[in-house]
Amino acid sequence: MDSTLEEVQKHCGNEIKAYAQCVGANQGDWETKCKDLRLALTKCSEDHVSTLKQIRQRCQLVIDGYRKCLSKNQQNPEACIDDLRGLYNCTQKAAAEIEAEGSKQQKKSK
After folding, report:
1. Quick one: which H or E segment has residue 27?
2. Among residues 23, 2, 16, which one has the least CA distance to residue 70?
3. What is the DSSP letter of 48?
């Protein structure tokens, strides 16, 4: 997963920086004010890092639940810690599965 994050940083560093600055500057309503920047970061990430697109597809319901929680709790994002844990667990599992599938594909092609 670390290599995936490194790829996102490499290809989408400007989007990450802009989104982080927006969130920091709009603590009370960052979910609304930074939506376009979040979408730009998501698009950049998926365009350049195929693993992320696959993870997103596998974890979409969990992602949606976390976003919904954050939207309801903009003033208190700590209320979403269980949703964040679920998202973390889903992404870790999906990344491991994707890596295992990639290893199987490599062995077949040899």
Report:
1. none
2. 23
3. H
Q: What percent of the chain has pLDDT over 90?
A: 59
What values do phi and psi take at 34, rounded to 5?
A: -105, 10
Question: How far is 12 from 5, CA to CA, in rounded Å?
Answer: 10
Q: Is 76 helix (H, G, I), strand (E, B) or coil?
A: coil
DSSP 49: -
User: Whole-prediction pTM value?
Assistant: 0.68
Which residue, chain included where needed, has tokens 């969990």? 62
- Phi, psi (degrees; rounded to nearest 5) at 79: -65, -15
Q: Which among 38, 90, 43, 24 has a CA at the least distance from the CA of 62?
A: 90
Cα angle for residues 84, 71, 62 (degrees, 5° grid): 35
